[in-house]
Design a protein that fits this description.
transmembrane helix, membrane, single chain, transmembrane, 2 helices, mainly alpha, 94 residues
Amino acid sequence: MSDRRTDPSWDDLDQGLLIGAVILLSVGALAGMSGSVLVGAAVLKATRRWMRRADLPPADLARLKWAQARAAAGAGAGAWRASEPAARPAVPVP
């Protein structure tokens, strides 16, 4: 029997390549997190600016938008119901 080892070992890894990969992954993760923070700050700033321009308090604005959404949904449902019978061909029921 041979004395050569066949199981994997940490010595098989290229240490320089591994260190380079870890550094690049760390830099990429840091850049991604920084970008996420900047996007969040931009959205927060835009939201604050929009709220300052709004004439209504947030609760009243939310109530108004909810009423608009309900009216739009009702109008869409009504139009769909009105056009449905005209779109179906008359099929006699046996």
